[in-house]
Design a protein that fits this description.
The protein is an alpha/beta fold. About 35% of the residues lie in helices and about 20% in strands. The protein has 13 helices and 17 strands. The protein has a seven-stranded mixed sheet. Strands 14-13-12-15-16-17 form a six-stranded mixed sheet. It has a four-stranded antiparallel sheet with strand order 1-2-3-9.
Length: about 400
Amino acid sequence: MKCRACAQPLEEVFLDLGTAPPSNAYLSSAELARPETWFPLKLYTCGNCRLVQVDEVESHDRLFSPDYAYFSSYSRSWLAHAERYVDEVVPRLGLGPRSFVVELASNDGYLLRYVAERGIPCLGIEPTESTARVAREHGIETLTQFFGAGLGARLKAERGGADLVVGNNVLAHVPDINDFVAGIAALLAPEGVATLEFPHLMELVRKRQFDTVYHEHFSYLSLQVVERIFAAQGLRVFDVQALPTHGGSLRVWACLPGAVREQTAALAKMREAESAAGMDALDWYRGFQRQAEEVKDEFLAFLLEQKRAGRRVAGYGAAAKGNTLLNFAGARSDLLAFVVDASPHKQGRFLPGSRIPIVAEGRLREEKPDFVVVFPWNLRDEITSQLAYVRDWGGQLVFAVPRLEVVAA
């Protein structure tokens, strides 16, 4: 295997989670009678450029299939995050009716709705037909394609350069990261800006967030690595913001090399923070395996203890990160009876690997489990508030990452 950024051979293992099916490959009842395909889930650190990455064991067009089940609009906090971003970026860049905004991996139009409401022309590019269809139903023009250099150049020739290109939680999802970034450079107007958000590798390690590792996440990113990749493809990073989303993310602001954009003090500060943490040296990338196993062992011990005591455990949030944790721990429905999810696109289906049923929230009130494991820990405040009623029967909430924590609902 070679590094997807610099093509150097990969030898340094960052994390080995064994094997697992794709984390968003939710199963129908009929599919339970058929075998699942499990793939190695192992991350490597590039000794040359420090990009942490998983091998493409399953093609991205199959991972992001037409019936993709993740819809961004079912999280209130994520919608609020998108609206705050639009409130910030529109005045900062002076966007208006004569501007052109493109979002990459636009999902169900969760963000572009706020752009369209301001009368700003916009376009979504989303490879999964299930989510793109919903965006179109809400009036958001959406192309169902994977983005790259060819599409970026074609769109600029046909529609003019983009004043803003948005990419939230997509940079980690593309197998050919160089082609993707080159596409952004090809699409931007001379003074255009691209903003991309991604989970910060420094925070992933610090908070032991190994459950954010899955096949759909091809790359695990730091500022230093992103700057190198962007520079190689004709983009210059001029600002960065640290965000609380997804356990700690970065939003980088980039432009073409000749654009009039001054480098900010925040960018220099984040560079210094990564260097001070030791991310320049390979030693920093070693030892994460032990931390992941500690989290897994604590979680599995908890589930086994409750089973022996005859207590009922359910889950909340059929998130990909939950599937990584459950499959690494080897947990099945005898240890965790069911998982609640707000999305009707997931209800009635089953988690990949563990095959735990996904149900509507009413099931919690009916069965009153003793414990509810919250898998989307990144939405902790939102979900804790939503599940306050669990305390009515003495139930408690459980968080497994970064360490096992049992709290009153």
